[in-house]
């Protein structure tokens, strides 16, 4: 009994009493308003929580970005950050629902994590985790950046024939992605985190 208590206490110490999954639905009805793609678009997550993006409708990505470059994978604008990138997840109208898990490791405390959907970014299909309400970097500002830089009125580079072709050529795909090595890193960390809890729980039950 004494050992059981010790195990539970150490579990709590390592993982936090309230570590939890925070769900985000990817695939709100974007027909008339692309900002509906992530619900909620503003997420609050504590250290050791896992943000779980649940792709329920349509064909979208969740891809980490920097505040100043909302519609580009963060690694393309800041090589020191790998970032997460789901690649396109086509739900086939809700019959192929998948998730992407993004663990909020303790070093990410106090940091805002911005992200976007490749297919709706220019219309405001973006979101953020742990947005600092006292900062000038707000969700509304991030949406404005996305529309300004990638919306229909945005200046496209002359070298590309059209914005849609540009999007496709830069877009991640489920099989090949420029940042493919990074795509699964978050999922792997989440799985490892979960697996490392199991032996402790089993040990506790065995007693
Ligand atoms: C999405 O919204 C549009 C109008 O805003 C509506 O016509 C359409 O039926 C909706 N689609 C779904 C799947 O709810
Ligand atoms: C789109 O939805 C957001 C909430 O996600 C809302 O704040 C905004 O006013 C809507 N825009 C339009 C044009 O309906
Ligand atoms: C994702 O959402 C779908 C549809 O709402 C639901 O059936 C499924 O259980 C969810 N997945 C997870 C991991 O929560
Ligand atoms: C998802 O969207 C991307 C970019 O628009 C496109 O290249 C891809 O073919 C789409 N996937 C499906 C299954 O339609
Ligand atoms: C790149 O990301 C690192 C880590 O978040 C940050 O310290 C650095 O300021 C970023 N660089 C630029 C140019 O934004
Ligand atoms: C999904 O639903 C949309 C709208 O109802 C339809 O146009 C499309 O063909 C459907 N796609 C598939 C793969 O069933
Ligand atoms: C986050 O901010 C709090 C309050 O300023 C501080 O105590 C904590 O050490 C910070 N965490 C990290 C990882 O920087
Ligand atoms: C947004 O525009 C930038 C610069 O033209 C481009 O590199 C990026 O691929 C675009 N993003 C999307 C999602 O289309
Ligand atoms: C934001 O500012 C308010 C008032 O100045 C303060 O009470 C609050 O703790 C601050 N929030 C953060 C996240 O720093
Ligand atoms: C694009 O083409 C226009 C007209 O040919 C030119 O004025 C402009 O400088 C070009 N922009 C870039 C980024 O090359």
Automatic annotation (TrEMBL):
UniProt signal peptide: 1-19
Q: Which UniProt keywords apply?
A: Signal
The coiled-coil regions, if any, are: none
Keyword flag ATP-binding = no
* Annotated SUPFAM superfamilies: Cupredoxins
The membrane-spanning stretches of this chain are none
From the Swiss-Prot or TrEMBL record, give the protein name.
Cupredoxin
**Organism for this UniProt entry:** Cerrena zonata
